[in-house]
Structures are given as C-alpha cells and as structure tokens.
Amino acid sequence: MINVKAKIIKNAWIKHNFFHCVISASELAKRAIPGQFINVRINDSLTPFLRRPFSIYNAQDGRVEFIYEIVGEGTRLLSSRKKGEYLDVIGLLGNGFEINTRQDAQNILVAGGMGVAPLFFLAKRIVGRKGIPKPLVLLGAKGKEHLLCEDEFKRLGCRIKVATDDGTKGFKGYVSELLKTIILPNNSGQAINYDVQRTKYEEQSTTIYACGPRPMLKEVVLIAREANVSAQVSFEEHMACGIGVCWGCVVLTSKGFKRVCKDGPVFEAKDLLWQN
Q1: Could you give the angle at the alpha carbon of 99 between the alpha carbons of 237 and 230, nearest 5°?
Q2: Per residue in 201-210, pLDDT tens?
Q3: CA 52 to chain centre
Q4: Is 100 inside any structural domain?
Q5: What pTM does this model have?
Q6: How many other CB atoms are there within 10 angstroms of residue 59's CB atom?
C-alpha cells in the first residue's frame, strides 16, 4: 500500500451522472490486479472528511482509471476537479479476482450498475491471456440510459448480454435473472424474453465473477450454488478507513465476519453466509 499524489489526466462526463477519471500513478498501474481499489481524498479540506473508494476500471501505461457516479457531496466535488490538478490516492487496496485459466474455461462476468468497473479490468486481463476463451459478459442496469461500457466490452471481443430493470434494452428484469436463464434454463421459472445463447455450462470449467449491489450478489451466489459452479463476488460497500481498522464494512462468512476492504472485496461464493 502506498500513498501518492496523482495528477488528473482526465475527468470527463460519460452519460447521465457517470464520470470517467484517469490519473497518473505509475507504481499503482504497474501492480494493479482486477478487483482491487483505490481510496481517494476528494480535496485538501476536511470536507468531505472520509476518502472515497473506487474500483480500478483500467491500469496501463502508468495510468489508473476509475469510473464513478455522482450520488452525494463527495462525488459531486470530485466531478468538479480539473485536468492537471492532483488527487491524494492510497492504493492498492484489497484482493482481486483469480482467473480461471483452463483451456475450456467458461468465464461469465455479471455486472450490476457501477459493478461494471472491476469487471471491465478483469475482462481485459482474460482476453489478454492466450488459450482462454473470451468471457460472456452480462450487463445490468436500471434502464438503457444507465448502461455502462457496452461498447468497450464489444471492442474486447466479449460476448455480451444486457438486462434492464425497465426493459428498455435487452432482457427485461434483473441481471441475476438473466444469469439464471443461462445457467439454469430449465429451472428459471419464467418465460425467456431475450435471445439467450443455449450453451451447456460445465461444472468444472465454469466460473462466475460478479460485482454490484448486495442483493444482486446474494442472488448470483444462490444461482451458482444451485448450478454447482464456482463464483467470486466483489462487494461495493461504504468504507470509513479502507484499510481494515474500523470494521465498518463487514460481511458474514463461514469463518466469521470479514472486512470488505481488507479481506475482500472479492470473496468466494462458497464461503459467504447471508443474514435475512
């Protein structure tokens, strides 16, 4: 973990309330792995007091990229930061995804909303590995206007399926429901209203990687267990310290409570327990 003053190369609006920030941080870029995150101080004042965690969207050529949505005062202030200014950044934090490198690997990436960020980075790494099939990417959002990175995944050559809550594009429903129609097509309990490729997903070769809201992750874990395939899920949580001291971002596992910032944010689905 290192603390750097990172120069802003780009901080641009994408669509809706979403922004794309690129910073110069060679040491972080060199060592980053998909699933890890950085903790950013928004400005030099005490407001906001806490840093903000952001999953790494891409890391290459000495630059680290992240995407964010304006949801409060902190991200609103971040959106006003200009090219050439500096951000106080701590990283690299957390663990990362472990890629299934089998020659017959069937890797499925399931992104809900802003959960797309670490999965795009993961997709780039998978595509960059020789001898591994390109992953299937399931993108979920509230509606068409909230979908992120569809074109970017296409440029990687990934197979893509889209789910929107309101049905404005692709499958009408949650992305976890789309996953179920693909992994458990005979047990989905609903009519298929989207063009779903019929592929048999073998237990030994299939790995699901998911990031998104906690209710979505719970459904993904349950689906993976029913299909008897492995899954890794990355949690999106509010964090105070970001380094495991405050225990403010915990999840329940078979080994007790674990900290998302320190022990995660990526966890094996088989280890997770869910409280009602």
Answers
A1: 75
A2: 767 789 999 9
A3: 16
A4: no
A5: 0.92
A6: 25
Counting the structural domains of the chain, the total is 2
| 224 shares a domain with 111 | yes
Tell me the C-alpha distance between 250 and 232, whole Å: 17
Total residue length of the chain: 276
Classify burial at 249, counting beta carbons within 10 Å of its beta carbon; exposed 0-12, middle 13-18, buried 19 or more: buried
> What does 100-157 look like in DSSP terms, one character per residue?
---TT-EEEEEEEGGGHHHHHHHHHHHHHSTT-PPPEEEEEESSGGG--SHHHHHHHT
User: Tens of pLDDT along 2-14?
Assistant: 999 999 999 999 9
The Cα 197–Cα 153 span in angstroms is 18
Among candidate residues 239, 242, 200, 207, the one with its CA nearest the CA of residue 224: 207
Question: Are residues 257 and 131 both part of a single domain?
Answer: yes
> What pLDDT is stored for residue 49 in this prediction?
81
Cα separations in angstroms, 235 against 4, 118, 195, 209, 239: 25, 11, 29, 11, 11
Q: Does residue 119 share a domain with residue 82?
A: no
List Cα–Cα distances, 193 to 162, 174, 185, 250, in angstroms: 12, 12, 12, 37
Distances, alpha carbon 36 to alpha carbons 71, 93, 165, 187, in Å: 21, 6, 28, 34
Residues 91, 2 contacting (CB under 8 angstroms): yes
CA gap 33, 54 in Å, rounded: 14
Q: Which domain holds residue 145?
A: 106-271
Can you give the pLDDT at residue 84? 98
- Please give the pLDDT value at position 1: 87
CATH of the domain at 59: 2.40.30.10
Q: Which residue has the higher pLDDT, 237 or 64?
A: 64
Partner residues linked to 23 by β-bridges: 8, 64
Among 60, 93, 126, the domain boundary falls at 93
Has residue 101 been placed in a domain? no
